[in-house]
Amino acid sequence: MIKFEGITKVYNDGFRAVDDLSLHVKEGELLVLIGPSGCGKTTTMKMINRLIEPSEGEIVIEGEEISKKDPVELRRNIGYVIQHIGLLPNMTIGENVALVPKLKKWDKDKYMKRVDELLEMVGLDPQIYRNRYPAELSGGQKQRVGVIRALAADPPIILMDEPFSALDPISREQLQDELIKLQEEIKKTIVFVTHDIDEALKIATRICIMKQGKIVQLGDPEHILRHPINEFVRNFIGEERLSKAKFLPSLSEVLVKPVIAGPNRGLAEAVKIMHDRKVDSLLVVDKNEKLLGLVSVWEIQPHYHEEELKLKDIMKEDIPVVQSNQSLIEAIKISSEQRVRFLPVVTDSNQLIGVITRASLVDVMAGKYGDVI
Ligand SMILES: Nc1ncnc2c1ncn2[C@@H]1O[C@H](COP(=O)(O)OP(=O)(O)OP(=O)(O)O)[C@@H](O)[C@H]1O
Ligand SMILES: [Mg+2]
Q1: Mutate which of 9, 10, 18, 43 for ligand 1 pocket (most atoms within 8 A of beta carbon)
Q2: Cα(11) to centroid(ligand 1), Å
Q3: Nearest ligand 1 atom, CA 195
Q4: Which of 22, 85, 144, 265 is the most exposed place for a label (fewest CB within 10 A)?
């Protein structure tokens, strides 16, 4: 979606604020840029909508080099939210939100409807707030308006530079929650700058940790918590969060013993094993415990009378599995995406080491780790 290719920004005084940065922001993700003050976050972000021009390198959005585009047109297609959102004081909330749609020459009916929809989306009753002026709103309400103003013309990309940092902790939490919900619904590509590691861990699809104009580590929150790449990242995250993260159970802690059978077992034998162990499926493994497939009672039933058939003849071979070095979060994702009730866990040489069942996951999710997850 957005590709930085060897981007460097040297300011007029010779200061190298961004140093040979390459980064691919994927479509639909919420990428958080984080790092100490002065590390180049805002500079990086402002190069996306050409408020700042790079000294070297190229930024490509959906295959097009942005240096070749008209900056004004570019900005109309990129929402932008900043810390002090700068609503226009002599325009009503409705007029503020409708600004870009008007510039894009939308019909009045269409943008009025859009304004109301967006106000409702962030819990501001349009009847009350549409005609108010910015000075008649609280800080948190103004910030909500800033966010929906950036969304108004439905741009595919939204840039947010510390949008919540001036708010009190409660409004801040609320807006973070709303942003997560919004992102799930509208799937925009969002680049979000923050100083606050808790905010980053809460909202990010991926976190990009920067220092002195360079990327130190880029990864999803889970990965960064589990595998901070160096001392700088460890310090940045803080020991307390890291030690909390250690309490996240690993896959191996939620494994249960699989019910298995060899590929040459007959169907009647398989049914007996299932009956004895009170399960409705078997994992088929070879003599080295390598996973071959899965057979459930539903697949056996139509073939039951065919005495010559073995498990290897009817097993499903292409089944979702999780690798033993993947995280619990990844396992949960796979099981919900694939809608399976249990997931075999295999090593990189496909050896079966256990299964995760829905019941074992629920125990973990609902258990004492709930607040950490
Ligand atoms: N116009 C400018 N001329 C010279 N140096 C600049 C200019 N704008 C920013 N810088 C410097 O470039 C560096 C990066 O600035 P930038 O605003 O990108 O940092 P940041 O990571 O967003 O910091 P913060 O967290 O404080 O907002 C800083 O050292 C800053 O002083
Ligand atoms: Mg900044």
Answers
A1: 43
A2: 9
A3: 25
A4: 22
